[in-house]
Amino acid sequence: MKVTVDFEECLKDSPRFRAALEEVEGDVTELELKLDKLVKLCIAMIDTGKAFCTANKQFMNGIRDLAQYSSKDVLVETSLTKFSDTLQEMINYHNILFDQTQRSIKAQLQSFVKEDIRKFKDAKKQFEKVSEEKENALVKNAQVQRNKQHEVEEATNILTATRKCFRHIALDYVLQINVLQSKRRSEILKSMLSFMYAHLAFFHQGYDLFRELEPYMKDLGAQLDQLAVDAAKEKRDMEQKHSTIQQKDYSSDDTKLEYNVDAANGIVMEGYLFKRASNAFKTWNRRWFSIQNNQLVYQKKFKDNPTVVVEDLRLCTVKHCEDIERRFCFEVVSPTKSCMLQADSEKLRQAWIKAVQTSIATAYREKGDESEKQEKKSSPSTGSLESGSETKEKLLKGESALQRVQCIPGNAACCDCGLADPRWASINLGITLCIECSGIHRSLGVHFSKVRSLTLDSWEPELLKLMCELGNDVINRIYEAKLEKVGVKKPQSGSQRQEKEAYIRAKYVERKFVEKQLAAVPLLESGTKILPQSQEEKRHSGPEKSILAGEQGSASPKVRSSDSGIHQSADDSREHLASTISVNSLYEPEGDKQEPSVLCDSKQFNPGLQLYRAAFEKNLPDMAEALAHGAEVNWVNIEENKATPLIQAVRGGSLVTCEFLLQNGANVNNRDVKGRGPLHHATVLGHTGQVCLFLKRGANQHATDEDGKDPLSIAVEAANADIVTLLRLARMNEEMRESEGLYGQPGDEIYQDIFRDFSQMASNNPEKLNRFQQSDSPKS
């Protein structure tokens, strides 16, 4: 260590020593000023950096808001989300840099100033004090007279003591100076080195982060180049179209109004008309009218639901009106009301009148063709399995999927925000949704919610019936059971999207509002419980008695069928269950018969067992509750031949129950301990509708059980013509697709039509598919 002030010179107290002290003291004073300034600048830099991070975070939040706003554009939303996440990481790295700067510069240098330099100042004060005392002792010793021996001795002793004290304090002062001069170098360099390493880490992290993002940025740049080319082409096309349209003669708008009865969107004609109000003032209002779906409707604004003027054009007539003061008027008259309308010109009036008349004729022709088609299908000579009675009834009612689903309690408003007239649905949950909530449901993934349009998509009959079995009220009683307890406010239709998204995720993904305590699942509506039996009782009473052991607890117990909506008496239930077991006996050896799961006597059970039992009992609300409590849809009952809820749904005989499980992820090919899957069981029991459903859902009809029998061989042995037809047709269609390389294709039109007919019959006329149970099954 280099000595700044020499200890020997300190003892001499020479002018060189004093000059060295003066130089060191001035240097330390300057050092203190520099360090104080550096610390203040560091504090200002940190404050400014944090303000920058705050502003940068606000900018990043703006990018995220823009990404959410652009949710309909996948490219923009994905890119902005990635960029905002990267910027958020950079903000985090900046905060780490500022924290390290505060520790390395501010804290470390402030400690050096406050501790080491303060010790130097204290030592300096002591040195100056003892130095002054030494000077005073020297002066006093020099001034004492020789003849005053006592004063001479006293002055000498004081000088000796003062010199001794001076040497001790001076040496300490010199030591403090030398230590300070050496330490300041290490402290300053150590703090700056730490600061520079913080910068090194910051830039390394930023480099690594953007190096990962670079391939995506390059790919996005290539896409933007292509977008620029496409945009230029679109601009040229639009300019050409603009020029073409500009050259046309638009002096009279009424010449451009045309009607088309075969329009793809169903709108025959549309345009503005004045409508006379039915109030006392007879005011005229301009509205946007259209002829669509054999109806005359109008709207005030585009987002408004159309107001129906004439529900069925076949029941109305149209005529000119020349007896009022206004020009170009015509009247549409129906059995219940009349509507006075005014066009902008005579040509427009004639066009509207002709359009209405043509639509009336078209409506009559279409209805006649549909009726004739249904009559042909219902005729025995055609050999078709479909009966047209219910289809005709629905055509007369004019029911659509939207109308049927919205008739269910609670379905007239969005399940999650309450917006009226929802047009979307979650098919595995059985609820209706508005368009914004449906978008949030889509983002959850199909394992939580499968979204479908009630107006744009086609609906299979079993799926439509599933929607009608559940509904918003039923599902909300399950998924919002604890909503008031936890103190969460349900979002409204006008709430922000972020609030709705957080609520929907908490409701369906995290299931925060589901009541955790499972309740008992009653087996019979009347309250009758299934009592356990001893083995001796089972041997003497038989399966029917075992199943209906609790029948005596009620005068007239009822069993509700989820599929047919019909209440049966206990006698009917006994006959149905007896015939079911008898059909099973065609296939199961006597020693291997399994009693239905409803024989267990447990008031509370796990969610998987609840789903298993509710599937047999055709109780969709209980099944939905079990899934909400976390039941595995492919739960296996070890005690009952490893049967699954889907197999139990087959045994219960409900098509809708099977559809509900399949929509919620049930594996159609899971088999029990005897190698029998749902298709095997449906074939054994003669459930034609379920066989049709499983084949449509990809069931493996080549799978064999422990006896080496596949579903087709079982159906042939049972002489079930309908199921044999379905299985052979499906096998033939599969072989044809494989030979022609049409993997993943649905098949030819004949195959689709036949399966569509069976699906319609299984959902709407199930009694026509019960030929096997009614005629061929042996009675118990």
UniProtKB/TrEMBL annotation:
Keywords on record: ANK repeat, Cell membrane, Coiled coil, Endosome, GTPase activation, Membrane, Metal-binding, Repeat, Zinc, Zinc-finger
Region Disordered, annotated ranges: 365-390, 531-575
Record comment: activity regulation: GAP activity stimulated by phosphatidylinositol 4,5-bisphosphate (PIP2) and phosphatidic acid.
Gene Ontology MF: a single term: zinc ion binding
One Gene Ontology cellular component annotation held by this UniProt entry: endosome membrane
Arf-GAP domain sequence ranges: 399-521
Primary subcellular site in the record, as a coarse category: membrane
Biased composition regions of type Basic and acidic residues, renumbered to the chain: 365-378
Pfam families according to UniProt: Ank_2, ArfGap, BAR_3, PH
Compartment list: Cell membrane; Endosome membrane
Domain PH, chain residue ranges per copy: 266-361
Entry keyword annotation includes Metal-binding: yes
UniProt repeat feature ANK, residue ranges: 641-673, 674-706
Described function: GTPase-activating protein for the ADP ribosylation factor family.
Comment, domains: The BAR domain mediates homodimerization, it can neither bind membrane nor impart curvature, but instead requires the neighboring PH domain to achieve these functions. PH domain binds phospholipids including phosphatidic acid, phosphatidylinositol 3-phosphate, phosphatidylinositol 3,5-bisphosphate (PIP2) and phosphatidylinositol 3,4,5-trisphosphate (PIP3). May mediate protein binding to PIP2 or PIP3 containing membranes.
Protein name: Arf-GAP with coiled-coil, ANK repeat and PH domain-containing protein
Highest classification ranks of the organism: Eukaryota, Metazoa, Chordata, Craniata, Vertebrata
